[in-house]
Specification:
The mean pLDDT is 95. Helix content is 26%, strand content 20%. Helix 5 (73-80) links the parallel strand 4 and strand 5 (89-92). The protein is an alpha/beta fold and 329 residues long. The chain folds into two domains: 2-186, TIM Barrel, CATH 3.20.20.10; 205-327, Lyase, Ornithine Decarboxylase, Chain A, domain 1 (Beta Barrel). The chain has helices at residues 5-9, 13-19, 31-39, 55-63, 73-80, 104-116, 138-151, 165-170, 301-307, 312-317; strands at 2-3, 26-28, 46-48, 66-70, 89-92, 123-126, 160-161, 205-217, 222-223, 229-230, 235-240, 257-260, 263-268, 276-279, 291-295, 326-327. Strands 1-2-3-4-5-6-7 form a seven-stranded parallel sheet. It has a six-stranded antiparallel beta barrel with strand order 8-11-14-13-12-15. Strands 9-10 form a two-stranded antiparallel ribbon.
Length: 329
């Protein structure tokens, strides 16, 4: 089940769906995006990961054959108050993430209520791991898995869905009827300690721009807002058309890597709204209109995120609509 939430992690919903057209199902958060997939002709199961929020939405779920996550008892009340019965339901159990999901003590009552309401042929059981991406958290993952298995032991005939990207790669024991790959589909690593290249994941998105101005600076000159970078020698500085209004992180510090003319360089000083400065000093033939790769082919988004003190999920999802993105799925 391919995860396409947040506009397919910033890659474009229909672009990603087209590349993943042979998957068994899709999952996302946004009802309008699910409808968009149906209107585009996709017939696979489509799961809404936060389910429905009102009884009025149930008619839309049934009309578009959408599956819903059930994660709180109020949704059962909504189902009881409606006439809609032709819905596929994923019952989410909170096994330790403490975000969404029924408390273990609520599970039996909820599933028995759904069975009485004749949903027994439309039920899948699920949970979500809180720390499958952390190298020292195997015990926690196993505790969540054991919790899920104990709670659902009487209902083992129902299909289940447990594994996200990190668990798919690191914990094969969590692979059940449905797995839910997300960030790995887009060529980024779900782990802080393992690179995408080490996992044989290739970047899907290349965020690129170009040098729009060049400054020749002497030693001791300052660059950008508040002069956060000061030259220690004569330097050539390039100004690149990309900034935090495009989704590039404002907090990315000096030395965050970029590629200029396919050669490795770095940003300098404070990222501004529409521009950032890069070091051209040692880049052969760099100048006006030189191509710049902010992340993508040749420069992992994971590395840029690490330098900026965040993760690849945030960088990919934060890109503004005005950004032109090159997707090579």
């Amino acid at each position: 089940m391919a995860i396409l939430k947040a506009n397919a992690y910033g890659h474009g919903l229909l672009n990603a769906a087209s590349a993943l057209k042979d998957v068994d199902g899709f999952a996302l958060l946004e009802l309008d995006a699910a409808i968009c997939l149906r209107d585009a002709g996709y017939q696979q199961p489509i799961l809404l990961l936060e389910g429905f929020f009102s009884t009025e939405e149930l008619a839309i779920f049934e009309q578009y054959r959408l599956s819903a996550v059930i994660h709180h008892v109020e949704q059962i009340a909504m189902l009881s108050a409606s006439k809609h019965r032709n819905l596929n339901l994923f019952i989410k159990i909170n096994t330790g993430m403490n975000r969404l999901g029924l408390a273990p003590a609520q599970f039996s009552q909820v599933i028995n209520t759904l069975i009485k309401k004749q949903y027994q042929e439309n039920i899948t059981l699920m949970t979500h791991f809180a720390s499958a991406d952390e190298p020292c958290e195997q015990e926690n993952v196993m505790q969540q898995l054991q919790c899920f298995e104990a709670i659902t032991a009487k209902y083992g005939h129902y299909p289940s869905s447990l594994a996200n990207s990190a668990a798919i790669i690191r914990y094969p024991v969590t692979h059940t009827d449905w797995v839910r790959p997300g960030i790995m589909l887009y060529g980024a690593s779900p782990f802080p300690d393992v690179t995408a290249a080490e996992l044989n994941l290739r970047p899907v998105m290349t965020l690129s721009s170009k040098v729009i101005a060049v400054q020749e600076l002497e030693a001791g000159e300052r660059v950008g807002y508040h002069g956060l970078f000061r030259t220690d020698r004569p330097m050539r500085i390039g100004i690149v058309a990309c900034g935090y209004a495009d989704g590039y992180p404002r907090h990315a510090p000096t030395n965050t890597p970029v590629l200029i003319n396919n050669q490795r360089s770095r940003i300098l000083g404070r990222v501004s709204m529409d521009m950032l400065a890069v070091d051209l000093t040692s880049i052969e033939n760099a100048g006006l209109n030189s191509p710049v790769i902010l992340w993508g082919k040749g420069l992992s988004v994971d590395e840029v995120a690490l330098s900026a003190g965040t993760n690849s999920y945030e960088l990919l999802c934060a890109l503004a609509p005005r950004v032109e993105k090159t997707a090579s799925l």
